[in-house]
Amino acid sequence: MEKDFVPTQNLVYPLEGTVGWKAPSNIALVKYWGKKPHQIPANPSISFTLDASATRTFLKFRRMDEAKEAFSFDFRFEGKAKDSFKPKIATFLGRIETYLPFLRHYHLEIESSNSFPHSSGIASSASGMAALALCLLELERLANPEMTLEDFKQKASFLARLGSGSACRSIGGSLIQWGSTPGLSGSSDLYGIPYPYEVHPNFNNFHDTILLVHKGQKTVSSSVGHGLMKGHPFADNRFQQAHENLKKLRPIFKEGDLESFIAIVESEALTLHAMMMTSQPYFILMLPNTLEIINRIWQFRKETGTAICFTLDAGANVHVLYPESEKTKCIQFIQNELVAYCENGHYICDRIGKGAQRISTSL
Ligand code: 2P0
Fold first, then answer.
1. How far apart are CA 131 and CA 280, in angstroms?
2. Ligand 1 center to residue 192 CA distance, Å?
3. Residue 305 alpha carbon to ligand 1 centre in Å
4. Which residue from 44, 101, 112, 345 has the fewest beta carbons nearer than 10 Å?
5. Is 49 a pocket residue for ligand 1 (Cβ < 6 Å)?
6. If we measure between CA atoms, which residue out of 217, 194, 173, 206 comes closest to residue 25?
7. Does ligand 1 come within 6 angstroms of the Cβ of 31?
8. Per residue in 53-88, pLDDT tens?
9. Is 327 helix (H, G, I), strand (E, B) or coil?
10. Is the Cβ atom of 313 under 6 angstroms away from ligand 1?
11. CB of 26 sitting under 6 A from ligand 1
12. For the domain bounded by 2-197, which CATH number is listed?
């Protein structure tokens, strides 16, 4: 329950200090699309935590003599003051204040940078909000060193969700499930949990090469897209389908059945975009090159039997997924046939990762 995340002890918080966290992005296999108030997902989702695509955030904090009316913070992104991000951060701080009641007593200097190129069209809200949530919670942990690692991660995921839904899947690794799922004890709408069942070694070190088809801003934000699932004619069936796909994935992960994995992952990606195309107002985030890439992947798979597939985020970029055993073949195929469809030939070689890491701040 939400109230379990409100600190009950009388804690003595530090006067000043600096903490740092690096949090990765993630790619959903079963998609979160549609939400209820307070960042509660309309259906459960599951994602691969990524490795290379990450946000690094440092938080310098100084206790003020008295609490301020408004949150006192500065935000710098890649070395420059970025005031345009401040309203989003202020909203986030407002949403989590009940759970971190010390926030108004500090002046916070937040400094972030991404490992992936700025405006690459990669969602930075997941890694960005996860890194910030971890830094803010670290301040509580300094006052409460007895907090267990499990409680720390769970609360970090809970807080990150209030910044951006998918961010709650960017704390741990390497397969994270978020959303209350009948029969899956420990699952919750409030935070992500490590996938608790057996996963076949076929999924170890799984690759995700992100093809940057379009690096600019998307035409419709994810928040607007989620909102359009309210009253959507296919919403109920879609939410039901996500539950069923999660159920189907259980034996697939256990047995390492890549063919069935591909069928679910690609269907989820196209269903996500089908929901956008059938919203009112309707919209399309895929571009001609997105479809060219999908068709090339299908053709290559048919001709060679390689276990390669795609998934999509809420944008035109294509995530190309393949197992470690197919790496050499797939990279060659991507370079020979797919890179031509990327903006300026840009792509990111990523893979499944282990989750967020603390950054040492002692020099
Ligand atoms: C996902 N996406 O499961 C889905 C699939 C994009 C496509 O969650 O409004 O940035 O901050 O909760 O998490 C993107 O939406 O939305 C997203 P908010 P978020 O990853």
1. 34
2. 14
3. 32
4. 345
5. no
6. 173
7. yes
8. 999 999 999 999 988 889 999 999 999 999 989 999
9. helix
10. yes
11. no
12. 3.30.230.10
Q: Give me the CATH code for the 205-351 domain, please.
A: 3.30.70.890
Q: Which atom of ligand 1 lies nearest, measured to the CA of 313?
A: 7
DSSP element (H, E) containing 40 = strand 40-41
Q: Which residue has a Cα nearest atom 17 of ligand 1?
A: 166
Q: Which two tokens stand for residue 63?
A: 């206790």
User: In this predicted model, what pLDDT tens digit does every residue of 210-258 receive, in sequence order?
Assistant: 999 998 777 889 999 999 999 999 999 999 999 999 999 999 999 999 9
Rg (CA), the chain: 20
> Which residue is closest in CA terms to ligand 1's atom 9?
223
Q: Is the CB of 223 under 6 A from ligand 1?
A: yes
Q: What tens digit of pLDDT does each residue of 152-185 get?
A: 999 999 999 999 999 999 999 999 999 999 989 8
- What are the tokens at 53? 């695509």
Is the whole-model pTM more than 0.85? yes
For 185, other C-beta atoms within 10 Å of its C-beta total 7
